[in-house]
Amino acid sequence: MNALYNHTTTLIFFFTTMNLITPITFTILLTFCYVSVAKKNTYIVHMASHRIPANFHNNHTHWFHSSLHSISESANMIYTYHNVIHGFSTKLSAQQAKSLKNLPGVLSVLPELRYELHITRTPEFLGLEQNNNLLPQSSGEGDVIIGILDTGVWPESKSFDDTGMGPVPHAWKGACETGTNFTVFNCNRKLIGARFFASGYEATVGPIDESKENRSPRDDDGHGTHTSTTTGGSVVAGANLLGYAPGVARGMAPRARVAVYKVCWMGGCFSSDILAGMDMAVADNVNVLSLSLGGGSAEFYRDSVAIGAFAAMEKGIFVSCSAGNAGPASYTLSNVSPWITTVGAGTLDRDFPAYVSLGNGKNYSGVSLYRGPALSNTMLPIVYAGNASSSTSGGLCMPGSLIPDMVKGKIVLCDRGINSRVQKGSVVKEAGASGMVLTNTAANGEELVADAHLLPATLVGLKAGDEIRKYVTSDSNPTATILFEGTKLGIQSSPMVAAFSSRGPNTITPEILKPDILAPGVNILAGWSGSAGPTGLSEDTRRVEFNIISGTSMSCPHVSGLAALLKSAHPDWSPAAVKSALMTTAYTTYKNGKMIEDLATGNPSTPFDHGAGHVDPVSALEPGLVYDITADDYFDFLCALNYTTTQIQLITKRNTTCDSTKTYSVGNLNYPSFAVVVPLDSAGKSGATTVINHTRTLTNVGPASSTYKVSAYSGSNSVGITVVPETLTFSQVNEKKVYTVVFTAGAMMVNSNVFGRIEWSDGKHVVGSPVVVSW
């Protein structure tokens, strides 16, 4: 703006000296200069399709153009959307956006949001290898198409080998788009589609710098290749990362087809591109959509992913999203709409131990994926970064913070936080140190996430870190070394809820329990990009075919692939039925009967952490009963939220209003879990006794003749649970039975929570639902 002002002043001086300007024209000129550069942002415009004027002959694109040009002849559409929403995206000033909002047929003009990525042993851990005979045959699985919205794909990965795969399914309508370093020949019968969406990104950030990333479906980051191969990667023998986690790598649905939609770039993932990717995926006829990204919580009518997922659900597409990596704090979830399956992250029974041996004779266990020259056999001096830093960053090992003369040739103890774990190692190495011990803080507890560090390094938990720091800062001559032990299997207890995994309660609709389910998301081995090293740092010149990384980004594609397995076994199942099967067969306890632990605290986890429990795919193939939900049911749910007609239209695209004579209940959505919210009085207190009823409908997908009996556990004397009826008898497949749960809640302190469980069993199948009662 200062440059504009200086330039404007020069023009005014010129015109004044030429007697071409008066005080009035001075004002006009100055105003014109400022208005002409009014800041423009990208907006997503939702149009009511049923309100298209007759003179457009149902040509929505021409209507969109006409509406936009009525407020700005120079404005251009970035995208038009026809499947997940009706509308378009464009760049406008705030005033233009306001004017456009007032035009007939415009439902909403929403500013674009930036989303972030939520960044193998798993088949064995999930029981898929030893139960291979239970899985669907290749002919069915090969017809299922998984769409992944992410950073693109590295098509040369062995995980996209299409050997033995049949022709591409006739239902596929997609394409393999060409672009920088990517052609149609990069696709095959496994990777059947690849598209990229950059227009929204470029409208905000500017043209893609093709010297740094490819303007094509090619993955320059690695994240997209990792998620897509986790979901549907082919079987690859001899997979490993630098010798760690050796074995056979395979996706959850290794015979399914994969279609990739690149919507994320170096500067982030923008909602206009995400919507365009979802819009195209629906048109392409995918069966499953996997999105390992999120942008925090927003009302459903403002959440582009939720809106796009609703349309996909109506088309019979299962949508899986990551819960987020903002744990262990409460209320940190992303992607909480009930038509999305929201996935948290758990650990595997595999670890990569690297021990810290101190000069005082004590040893502490950590983890590392470092592969390179080991430290010398002799003990090295160790120094705490907080005592060798030239900045106020303390022990965080921020770039440029370490004093080389104080760390050269030593091991540096760094605190976790702010910058990435691997960047801390890079900082330590650049300063001339020989190794690094990275210690967790209270936010991470005892969670250990392994990294392929650039120098000898290990990560230790909070307790060990405190002891090591105490030794380093109190001993007159502290020494240490790091010992790397490779790969170890059978680690117990497992799974545990990852500390980083985002937690409930659900901030938008607390009556819907989120996350839905837990899946492996810590130290996951999968395919990687040839454009990036395993750390993702620019100075990391190593290239690997597989990488081990962690995040709910990794747990989400596990569930997406398992959903593909269920869709191939049960092609007539709705997305809600698939979700129900995964949730009601999930487990919440170890074999010894103890609850799955929370890595952040070491305490038993709760449904706010693990949802319905850890996924059990073999049991999910035959769940016995499912809780099905239709698009009409979700419409009633939105009415129960007291959303306006316009807000509901934004989500559903339906020209329908809520029935004023009908009583709607959020708690009666036919969800496979129960989240009961006890109302408070005007003084913020609960009454002596509150009775709340929830109604559910179960559909028989097991044997035609079966009888199920219920058991209920309330978790506290303050809550009573009565189920009516207590027995459900089915005589045919797809028969439905209704039951009611009566929750009787006593007086409790505000923000209290009680956790229980409801199970139906016929002696073979157990159909379980978590219960949360909150005051």
From TrEMBL:
Residues 143-597 form the Peptidase S8/S53 domain. Keywords: Glycoprotein, Hydrolase, Membrane, Protease, Secreted, Serine protease, Signal, Transmembrane, Transmembrane helix, Zymogen. Residues 207-232 are annotated as: Disordered. Residues 209-224 have a biased composition (Basic and acidic residues). Residues 668-773 form the Subtilisin-like protease fibronectin type-III domain. Residues 42-118 form the Inhibitor I9 domain. GO terms for molecular function: serine-type endopeptidase activity. GO terms for cellular component: extracellular region. Pfam families: fn3_6, Inhibitor_I9, PA, Peptidase_S8. The active site is at D150, H223, S553. This is Cucumisin. It comes from Helianthus annuus (Common sunflower).
